[in-house]
Amino acid sequence: TLPLVLMMIRSKEKGFSTLGKLCLPASIFEINEPVVFGVPLVMNPYMMIPYTLSTLILSAGTYLLMLFNIIGRPVANIP
């Protein structure tokens, strides 16, 4: 949600600009709740669909890149 906050700061609408400035410190530390519930992402289908699809597209893209060995798979050592 950090790119969304940065875009909101540059927005011409005063409400989005103010909300973006207030949410920036939290978004740097990956605290996304002020953005998710402050911007009508949850109940607005026009904003919820891209928000949901972006996660799906990134997950599918990462899976395909790992499948074709373009990027490495994550490994965790078992103690």
UniProtKB/TrEMBL annotation:
The lineage of its organism: Bacteria, Bacillati, Bacillota, Clostridia, Lachnospirales. One of its GO terms (cellular component) is plasma membrane. Pfam families: PTS_EIIC (PF02378). Residues 5-53 form the Phosphotransferase system EIIC domain. This is PTS transporter subunit EIIC. GO terms for molecular function: protein-N(PI)-phosphohistidine-sugar phosphotransferase activity. It is found in: Cell membrane. One of its GO terms (biological process) is N,N'-diacetylchitobiose import. Its main location: membrane. It is a multi-pass membrane protein. InterPro entries: PTS_EIIC (IPR003352), PTS_Sugar-EIIC/EIIB (IPR051088). Signal peptide: none annotated. Keywords: Cell membrane, Membrane, Sugar transport, Transmembrane, Transmembrane helix, Transport. The chain crosses the membrane at residues 48-71.
